[in-house]
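In the present case, backbone shapes were mapped to integers, as reproduced here:
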Amino acid sequence: MFKVGSKYGDILTMLLVVLIVVILGIVGYFGYDIYNKNTKTANAQTAMAEFEEATKSVKKKKVTNTVGETENAENTDNTETEIVERENVPEAPTPETTTETDSETTEEPKKVMYEGYEMLGKINIPKTKCEYPILSEVTKHSIEVAVAVLYGPGLNEPGNTVIVGHNYRNGMFFSNNKKLTKGDMVYITSATETVGYEIYNIYQTSPDDAEYMRRDTGGAREISLSTCTDDSSARLIIWAREKAQ
């Protein structure tokens, strides 16, 4: 009886050890994921602040906000432009068009690098609290630390600019793009301006489909956001056009 009991005791001890190892592994995985997310978010915030500082002296053009009005993004004290989400605010009349003068600053912005890549600007999606640098090229590393331009004329240029980001299913980058709906806003800040884009098309397609990248916008400024679905079997594509003034 003693030997049988010892045998079962050894089995229970082994099972307990395995259970402890599994629990430690799970805790370690999620702990690292949280640490990694917080670190990348902090680094991204620092880079975006540096970008704002580097482009602060460059003439800011017009910003389209969530209620469709247009504001001049250049403050008289030359401070950063703050995008404020407006709710339950009556739509203001469209302001008169102003003529830009030659006295406004038009100097070239300082180039900002992030993780070895040129930072072209930043993306802000208020609904999902997504705010990250936009990098100049798509590589394995670049989209592990930010989002990046894959195709198109460039940020806030006429035509369709494609921006890709990972879906890590943890809230980072484009993980929450599936929560976006038609009418939601996406803000793209380049070195010279911030432009609001309104989502008008959302669909899934195969990973090999690139037709949407080359679509004709008729000279309008548009963006496409591309990421994987949660099961990585398809691509979630979002089209957005510049908000009408």
